[in-house]
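Sanity check. The docking grid for phenylalanine depends on where the pocket ends up, so I'm generating a full predicted complex first rather than guessing from homology. Inputs follow.
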Amino acid sequence: MNLQDLIDLKTKALAEAEAAGSADALEAVRIAYLGRKGLLPEIMQQLRDVSPEERPQFGKTANELKNELSDIIKSKQSGFSSCASVGVGFDLTQPGQWQGLGTRHPITQITDRIVRIFQTLGFTVADGPDIETVWNNFDALNTPADHPSRDEQDTFYLKNGDLMRCHTSPVQVRYMMENKPPIRIISPGRCYRRDTPDATHSANFHQIEGLYVDEQVSLADLKGTLSYFARELMGPDVKVRFRPHFFPFTEPSVEVDFTCHVCHGKGCRVCKNSGWIEILGAGMVDPNVFSAVGFDQSNLSGFAFGMGIERITMILYGIHDIRNLYENDVRFLSQF
Ligand code: PHE
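Predicted complex below; grid placement will be based on this.
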């Protein structure tokens, strides 16, 4: 082999390395030229047969071939391996790699849906802390000192006398202490009760609170608003029933049922043959609550309501066990 042959070989080797389109092709080039039985070691052995005039240049070119080829191979190799690690190859015919998109938790989805319905009516979102004072959670809400919900059996108390709020109603109190009517708020959030977990109970669950305070707000407004909400949430055919009830912070108080989403009121297993499903609690704000927050109530009135988000989520999605909502099993969550 003379010098010109070697120069041609170098050009060819570098071109082959540049053209290699995969890690395997590149490795084949490396083996062919630089491998133990490759062309370059063979050429080096021929060095002594080269004429003395060409020998220095021949040696230099052989070295260049070795170094330049190694450099190209090294830089392309790292390119191939970094492509492999992000899942992008150069074979455009290969099916893509699915990276797995997350979904919003069903509780979040239903919360957003409910909030949006009330936002279209002019309600804005208000927020409050999970840790509350006894005053905000019970006293200001006209809850008698001997009311069972205050019991340590039912509510988590902290060492400093505060508590984990057992409903979102203290947000009403906070908001009225800081804002003047007219008030239209909706407040989603976590609540805590000393419940033993089972298929329908959890010590930590979510509620959405609503509060509307203005002049001359009537029970008819409450019924109209919640009926609109029912139709937006369940569809135009749903019927709504208001049953007298008692809450310390509303007077009169009602419990609100929707016609069963499964049998549409005919009666089935889900609604225990009644045709109705209990959805929320509501009522006209008790005057004692207005007094507690310092509102002059002579011409003020309002309504409030509260609903459990887990319950509504379970009804809408046909989930039978509340615990499914907290286990974060991707096989469950990815269905929503
Ligand atoms: N706070 C009540 C509960 O947790 C729900 C409710 C809110 C009722 C507002 C009336 C008015 O059951």
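Relevant for the grid: The chain has a mean pLDDT of 92.
Also worth noting: Residues 167, 169, 209, 247, 250, 281-283, 304-306 surround phenylalanine (CB under 6 Å).
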